[in-house]
Specification:
Blueprint: E1 3-5, H1 6-9, E2 17-19, H2 22-26, E3 31-35, H3 38-49, E4 57-61, H4 68-78, E5 93-97, E6 101-106, H5 113-118, H6 121-126, E7 130-134, E8 148-154, E9 160-165
Parallel strand pairs: 4-7, 4-8, 6-7
Antiparallel strand pairs: 1-2, 2-3, 3-9, 5-6, 8-9
This protein binds adenosine-5'-diphosphate (ADP) and magnesium ion.
């Protein structure tokens, strides 16, 4: 497995490691990051956020406490959200104003497609903003083909592995 520091071989700054050759390292994923801290995961979110645009849908998966909300906070910051970003676990959906609207949804407590529609998830996705959905797998049938998928895993040593893929290749976005 080929792991290089950001400084050596990628535009990613700081102490974040990006695994190159992600295809062979992790199957079909476009990008894989290793994060050693909350701040690094936030920074990965910022980097990904710079590649996201109005109308995009991002579905995040990963166990409780892996850093989904942390990553969303970084994405929000990159698209100009100034407000404090908090977990929508109990409120289901938060709306922020950045350079475009950002809808931050936590689907953990939703029972499926109908629930998602009722809480405003469908309207958010059809709207003119960026939609971020934690526990996106719970509403998988509602997700468009173009959804950007992010999965976070905790390694044995407590690091976070952050996997990214989209229709086309996420790396080709600019
Ligand atoms: N590398 C890391 N990336 C993100 N969070 C981390 C990391 N290491 C430890 N943490 C801690 O894990 C927790 C992640 O919380 P959160 O982002 O709310 O997770 P989730 O939304 O997936 O439940 C935070 O308490 C954070 O401090
Ligand atoms: Mg969360």
């Amino acid at each position: 497995m080929n792991i290089l520091t950001a400084k050596e071989n990628s535009p990613y700054k700081g102490g974040i490691f990006q695994k190159h050759d992600a295809k062979s390292a992790a199957g079909e994923w476009d990008l894989v990051f290793i994060s050693n801290s909350y701040d690094e995961t936030f920074e990965v979110g910022c980097e990904l956020g710079r590649k996201l645009k109005r109308g995009d849908v991002v579905a995040l998966s990963g166990a409780l406490g892996t850093g989904k909300t942390c990553l969303c906070t970084g994405i929000c910051r990159a698209v100009g959200v100034k407000d404090l970003v908090t977990s929508p676990t109990y409120t289901i959906i938060h709306e922020y104003e950045g350079v475009f609207p950002v809808y931050h949804i936590d689907a953990y407590r939703l029972s499926g497609a109908e629930d998602f529609e009722n809480c405003g998830g469908g309207e958010a996705m059809r709207g003119d903003g960026l939609t971020l959905i934690e526990w996106g797998g719970r509403v998988g049938v509602c997700l468009p083909d173009e959804t950007v998928h992010i999965d976070i895993k905790i390694t044995n040593s407590g690091q976070r592995e952050i996997f990214v893929k989209s229709a086309g290749d996420f790396r080709s976005r600019n």
